[in-house]
């Protein structure tokens, strides 16, 4: 038991540069408390004390602002950083060494009493406000960007961003904790930049053609209204 607590606290120190001491973590970290209380709730749930389990999980939510269903399963050295607004559904499975930020929802997409919540494999990082919905799997050592809405499986060692979530990077073999969420790829911004570049190139081509035929624009409108013959080849 004490070895488990020691490994949990060490994991927090490695993943949170603001953690200054073991005592501070033990007294002040809601994510640490939420997982301790969840392990009690899960034990009660598995031994058919379901009402007591739900009451304990409600108490944990009141104290920490983190709602974890007693049926959810968590691996070792999981860290919920800040944690306010985190919601974890009943059939969620979270592997070892996972890092979860505030506002994350691991939710379901069906009312059927089946496996309806995500499976988060080892070493995954889930950014603030991300929503991972349904019976899907986020592969090990993947990263989910801030605010992403993930509705499909994410391959191992991948980066998923956007709404809905898109895979923009694969095979990050470093397996290190990377907190630089501001540097994740943004496929929407990249598409907009590509369109802007294309528009600039088209405008330059149009300007060259207008200069070649001694035409000018007046408030964005050609003064010569006979467009049909403007760009015909000489002699046609």
Note the topology.
Blueprint (H helix, E strand, L loop, with lengths): L1 H14 L6 H7 L1 H17 L3 H15 L2 E2 L4 E2 L4 E2 L6 E2 L4 E2 L4 E2 L4 E3 L11 E2 L4 E2 L4 E3 L3 E2 L4 E2 L4 E2 L7 E4 L4 E5 L16 H26 L4 E2 L2 E2 L14
Structure description:
- This protein is an alpha/beta fold and about 240 residues long.
- It contains 5 helices and 17 strands.
- A hairpin with a 4-residue loop joins strand 14 (about 160) and strand 15.
- Helix 3 (about 30-45) runs antiparallel to helix 4.
- The longest helix has 26 residues, at about 185-210.
- The termini are far apart.
- The relative contact order is 0.07.
- The mean pLDDT is about 80.
Looking at this protein, list some descriptive labels.
236 residues, alpha/beta
Q: TL;DR?
A:
This protein has 236 residues and is of the alpha/beta class.
Instruction: Please give the alpha-carbon distance between the first and last residues.
Output: 90 Å
> Can you write the helix and strand succession as a string?
HHHHEEEEEEEEEEEEEEEHEE
Question: What's the overall geometry?
Answer: elongated
Q: What summary fits the major beta sheet? A: 6 strands, mixed
The total beta strand count reads 17
The chain-level mean pLDDT equals 82
Rg, nearest Å: 27 Å
Q: Strands across the major sheet, in which order?
A: 3-6-9-12-14-15
What fraction strand? 15-25%
Percent helix, as a range, is 25-40%
Structural class: alpha/beta
Unreliable stretches (pLDDT < 50, length at least 5) are: none
The number of helical runs is 5
């Amino acid at each position: 038991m004490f070895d488990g607590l020691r490994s949990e606290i060490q994991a927090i120190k490695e993943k949170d540069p603001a953690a200054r001491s073991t005592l501070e973590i033990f007294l002040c970290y809601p994510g640490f408390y939420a997982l301790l209380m969840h392990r009690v709730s899960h034990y009660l749930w598995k031994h058919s004390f379901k009402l007591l389990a739900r009451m304990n999980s409600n108490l944990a939510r009141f104290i920490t602002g983190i709602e974890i269903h007693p049926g959810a399963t968590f691996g070792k050295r999981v860290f919920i950083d800040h944690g306010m607004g985190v919601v974890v559904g009943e059939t969620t499975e979270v592997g070892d060494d996972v890092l979860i930020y505030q506002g994350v929802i691991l939710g379901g997409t069906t009312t059927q009493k089946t496996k309806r919540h995500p499976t988060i494999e080892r070493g995954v990082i889930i950014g603030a406000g991300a929503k991972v919905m349904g019976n899907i799997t986020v592969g090990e050592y993947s990263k989910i960007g801030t605010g992403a809405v993930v509705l499909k499986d994410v391959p191992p060692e991948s980066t998923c961003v956007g709404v809905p979530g898109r895979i923009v990077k694969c095979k990050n073999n470093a397996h290190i904790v990377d907190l630089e969420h501001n540097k994740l790829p943004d496929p929407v911004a990249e598409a907009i930049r590509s369109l802007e570049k294309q528009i600039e190139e088209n405008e330059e081509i149009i300007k060259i053609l207008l200069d070649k035929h001694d035409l000018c624009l007046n408030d964005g409108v050609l003064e010569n209204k006979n467009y049909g013959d403007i760009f015909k080849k000489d002699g046609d």
